[in-house]
Amino acid sequence: MQNAHELARSGRHAQAIAAATAALALAGLSPSQRLEGLALRIDSHLALLALNDAETDAQAMLALAKTTKSVAHEAHALACLAHVQTRQERSEVAVATAAAAVAAARRSRQRGLIALALLRQATATFVQKPTDGAAQALEAARHFEA
């Protein structure tokens, strides 16, 4: 998976997707490793504007996260799905998904995850309708910066 990360960081997203896909095909990966691979593919699909592929991976990520019974995994998957929905210009659905991500992230008590979910919520809210609500959500996310 490290190779896929390096390829994505260097902007070689098609190759990153191929590397992550090959890694995901390996037997013996933990659910956390599979979630990491799916998240990487989602980001690369978004970079290439392959929004349907990103949504397919986001839905798969959420389904896998639910099987782990980890609220942190579910929060991360919901945040990824909200990001995809925002990019698809499905802002009403993205706002609801991001709110679920924030709730799950807060239950996880992981500051970085809370910040990510709040960022996704602010972005989705702003895209839906630029208002003070989006500014408030963004300000809440800033409190969790490292």
Explain how this protein is built.
The protein has 146 residues and is mainly alpha-helical. Helix content is 82%, strand content 0%. It has eight helices and no strands. Helix 6 runs antiparallel to helix 7. The longest helix has 18 residues. The radius of gyration is 15 Å and the shape is globular. It starts with a helix and ends with a helix.
How do the helices and strands line up, and which of them pair or pack?
Layout: H1 2-9, H2 13-24, H3 31-47, H4 51-68, H5 71-87, H6 91-108, H7 111-128, H8 132-142
Helix pairs in contact: 1-2, 2-3, 3-4, 3-5, 4-5, 5-6, 5-7, 6-7, 7-8
Number of helices, counting only DSSP H or I runs of 4 residues or more: 8
List segments where confidence is low: pLDDT < 50 over at least 5 consecutive residues: none
The 3D shape can be described as: globular
Strand content: under 5%
First-last Cα distance: 25 Å
Q: Whole-number average pLDDT? A: 90
Question: Biggest sheet, in brief?
Answer: none
Task: Count the beta strands.
Answer: 0
Mind telling me the C-alpha Rg?
15 Å
Order of helices and strands: HHHHHHHH
Protein structure class: mainly alpha
Proportion in helices: over 70%
